[in-house]
Write a structure and sequence with these properties.
5 helices; mainly alpha; elongated
């Protein structure tokens, strides 16, 4: 980033200390604009000196109710139930031979990629104990 000096065609670069301050100021400015936008969307007059506490409380409570619920905490019991007991994919299921890929895809459909490595490790532990062959290492895509 540069700022022009006194003469035309002359560029002087700002010192690094100033650049850090400029970046922080821009981030504060964008945060402040988001806050102002939140107030304007709810009909608050930003020209007033103060906002009534009761009105602000109602709007804040409504915004918190609309916020998404936090994701459930993933426990080892959840992973064990998915890997072992799942009726279609679990190792103890009566369906066709379960695969690690199918187990991971079903897990990701429910919980995205959270704890994917723990699911893979649990699957490998139980599969080896039951004599189900598990290929070591990550899969590699073969060149065709």
């Amino acid at each position: 980033m540069h700022y022009s000096g006194i003469g035309a065609g002359h560029k002087t670069f700002a010192p690094n200390k100033l650049m850090a301050q400029v970046y922080r100021a821009y981030s504060r400015l964008s945060r402040r604009q988001r806050v102002y936008q939140w107030f304007e969307e709810r009909g608050f007059d930003l020209g007033q000196r103060a906002i009534p506490k009761a009105v602000f409380g109602r709007h804040l409570a409504a915004a918190r109710r609309m916020a998404p619920a936090p994701a459930p905490k993933i426990t080892n019991a959840m992973i064990d139930a998915h890997v072992l007991v799942d009726p279609k994919l679990g190792i103890e299921s009566k369906m066709a031979r379960p695969t690690q890929d199918a187990c991971l895809k079903a897990w990701e459909a429910k919980y995205a990629s959270a704890a994917r490595d723990r699911v893979r490790d649990t699957y490998n532990t139980y599969a080896i104990a039951r004599g189900i062959p598990v290929k070591p290492g990550p899969r590699s895509k073969s060149a065709k």
